[in-house]
Amino acid sequence: MRLTTYTDYGLRMLMRLASEPGRAFSTADLAEEFGLSRNHLAKIMQHLARARLVETRRGGGGGAVIGLPADRIRLGDVINLLEEGQPLVECLNADGGDCSIDGQCRLKARLRSAERAFLVDLNRSTLADIALPAMSVTA
Question: If you average pLDDT over residues 13-42, what whole number do you get?
């Protein structure tokens, strides 16, 4: 399974926020630290905030902080959230995609099962398990 860059960046941001849960990070700080587009990260941050995985604060001392304890955030759930609308293959689209062998294909069910197993396995781990160690991250 290949994850989108959107999900990759979202996981990186969560890993960073979980490394220092009391510290608020601006999108600009994270963009500079990771060498990524601030606008792209802002969109991901809004998505994470809507899901309450991140809490955003305005004003002095504002920025983003982790919204839940890192040990309560399951990796499979995060990936499922961020990959929403990105099926493993076209035929797994909600509308069935454009498949010339639909109705005869035995692959679709196996792919759905593999995708579920992938997420179940990732849900055995939490964000706390993969948070960046605070001492190894530059501020």
Answer: 94
